[in-house]
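Shipment paperwork, digital attachment
Item: protein structure file
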Amino acid sequence: MRKTLFFGGIMALALVAGTARAELKVTLTIDGDVTEMIAVLQQLQLLGLGVSAPEEEDPLKMRLESVYGQEEAENETAPASAPEPVLALTRPVATPKKTSPGGTLVLSVAVIDERRAVDTLSATVIGTGLAFDLFDNGTHGDETPADGVWTASFVIPPDTPVGEYEVNFIAYDGAGNPLTAPTPEGSRSAVTVSTKVTIAAPKAPEPPVGPKKKPKPVPAPNNNK
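Attachment content:
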């Protein structure tokens, strides 16, 4: 933190010749760092300025006044602010990792929400048009309410194209706005996390397996003919 040290009112009463007396008035203002100003003050003191001489030794009398100015606002260091409460989505899971149209898919994600800002959490299977809300209230496949793990369980529609898809989780506030959190670079980004899931073609049904037919016995040859 810097302070500006102003040296003002360097007043001098000039030399007196005989009975005639002349007055010299000098005002000096110096701006700079405190340490620099102290060095200047010390030099002035070495020159004998700013030290009152005894009255009987008064061919020259000078008085130095120094005061500290106000702190320079533009150079003040802002106090460190308290860290922002953590808000993050972690451990995204798709169970099973590979399913097929008509199969059940369970999605879950752990939420760290120190500021209690998350109102809604949704998952989107990118490229399929599938989007689902997750819950932490013991319903929709959620095992334990209010444990910080949000879950959604749903059936893959039969007409869903096969392929590998990214599942994106994103958190929203009560007004439906995506929540954001600070990044290491100093900016802010949406609170989101993702995982992958594969939707494969269902296996062709195997033909039913019936009881094996016993071979017909071969009649023994008739040798009496």
